[in-house]
Amino acid sequence: MENVSVVRVFTLAGINETVNYRMTIFALTLLYYCVILFFNICLITIIIVDENLHEPMYVLLCNFCINGIYGTTGFYPKFLLDLLTSIPQISYEGCLFQAFIMYSFACSDLSILAVMAYDRYVAICRPLHYRSIMSKRRVTQLVCFSWLTPFCIFSISVILTSRLSLCGSKIQKLFCVNWVIFKLACNESDIVSNNIVSYATIVIYVLHGVFIMWTYMHLVKTSVKSIDDRVRFMQTCVPHLISLTTFLIIIVFDLLYMRFASTKLPQGLQNFIAIEFLIIPPLMNPLIYGFKLTKIRNRIMYIVCSGRK
Question: DSSP labels for 53-78?
Answer without folding.
Answer: G-SHHHHHHHHHHHHHHHHHHTTHHH
